[in-house]
Automatic annotation (TrEMBL):
Coiled coil: none annotated. Residues 5-79 form the Polymerase/histidinol phosphatase N-terminal domain. It comes from the Bacteria. This is Phosphatase. Gene3D superfamilies: Metal-dependent hydrolases. One of its GO terms (molecular function) is zinc ion binding. Signal peptide: none annotated.
Length: 236
């Protein structure tokens, strides 16, 4: 099956990514994606853009080169209460929010508290995607997370970037395999995201697709294969 959307991508606005929105969309079109989402880092990531960037998406056409455009953000999880660096005002302007643990904005609290933190993030009704829960720098009880995600109708990300041997995340592949096994068990939906930081990565899900095959992951649990499943990650 073919992935139809990529919602985890960064543009130059993130400060450590290297392509423009149009370069990314062009690559999405070349790779046959139907939906492209941009999700630049929220304001507390060093070097990223200010919140005002995320308030003016109305100027961006909803379709470019035949690709539908969605407006998102990758929020930083800040504390054990699950606070994220996205204001209430923005919640209503964005199509979706990915919430992730990042080293500049979150220090590991140990497996139990890291897990509690993600469970609390899932209680935020505007957060429908947990980004890259696959990093040994943040040990997690992935069983508990997959179970809660299924119950709370939150989606876990299969991050293609974590499968890159050059990734700074630790043990990505082994952790993703554990995550996929837990998702199978609890019928938890996953969303593949490339986490592209340059246009060449947009829509390139090769490593993820290979892994899905290796673990015989059910296609019905993958958002990217069926556009109607995108309803699960939208802020209504
Ligand atoms: Zn980044
Ligand atoms: Zn991230």
């Amino acid at each position: 099956m073919k992935p139809l959307c990529d919602l985890h991508t960064h543009t130059v606005a993130s400060g450590h990514a290297y392509s423009t929105l149009l370069e990314n969309v062009h690559m999405a079109a070349m790779r046959g994606l139907k939906v492209y989402g941009h999700s630049d880092h929220a304001r507390l990531m060093p070097g990223t853009t200010d919140e005002i960037y995320f308030t003016n998406f109305k100027v961006i056409p909803r379709e470019i080169e035949g690709v539908r455009i969605l407006h998102g953000i990758e929020a930083n999880i800040l504390d054990e209460l699950g606070t994220i660096d996205v204001s209430q005002k923005l919640y209503h302007k964005l199509d979706y929010i990915i919430a992730s643990l990042h080293s500049p904005t979150f220090k590991s609290l140990g497996k139990e508290m890291n897990t509690q933190t993600l469970l609390r993030v899932m209680d935020n009704p505007y957060v429908k995607i947990i980004g890259h829960p696959d990093d040994d720098r943040y040990p997690l009880d992935i069983e508990a997370i997959a179970k809660a995600a299924s119950e709370k109708k939150v989606v876990l990300e299969l991050n293609n970037g974590s499968l890159n041997p050059l990734s700074t995340r630790v043990n990505g592949k082994a952790n993703i395999i554990k995550m996929l096994e837990a998702c199978k068990k609890y019928d938890t939906m996953i969303l593949m995201g490339t986490d592209a930081h340059i246009c060449f990565e947009v829509g390139d899900f090769e490593a993820s697709l290979q892994l899905l095959k290796e673990v015989n992951f059910p296609k019905e649990l993958v958002i990217n294969f069926e556009l109607s499943r995108l309803n699960m990650v939208y802020n209504q």
